[in-house]
Amino acid sequence: QVQLVESGGGLVQAGGSLRLSCAASRSIFSINAMGWYRQAPGKQRELVAISRLSSTNYADSVKGRFTISRDNAKNTVYLQMNSLKPEDTAVYYCNAVHFGNNYWGQGTQVTVSS
After folding, report:
1. Separation between Cα atoms, residue 107 and residue 114, nearest integer Å
2. What's the pLDDT tens digit per position in 18-61?
């Protein structure tokens, strides 16, 4: 079992930055994949960024603006979001995939005003 708690969302103007945090209830050192997804109103949940043990991938829409990172000592995954755009507005969810099981946080709202 892995419990995930996100924080760091909020309201920011276009062009601004936010850093989301995802604190896990256990060591993330060996977790196969940890990532961030988002869901905007009326849209499906989509992958934003994923950190696997040997690779990192980003959605095309956030490449060059967002950075995912892990701090194994703090059991925390971060999403640094720069140059935010109104279309980045969504609820952001942390996800962990471990031995075939999917775990989700409760989500944190990010709102970018124009």
Report:
1. 23
2. 999 999 999 898 898 999 999 999 999 999 999 998 899 999 99
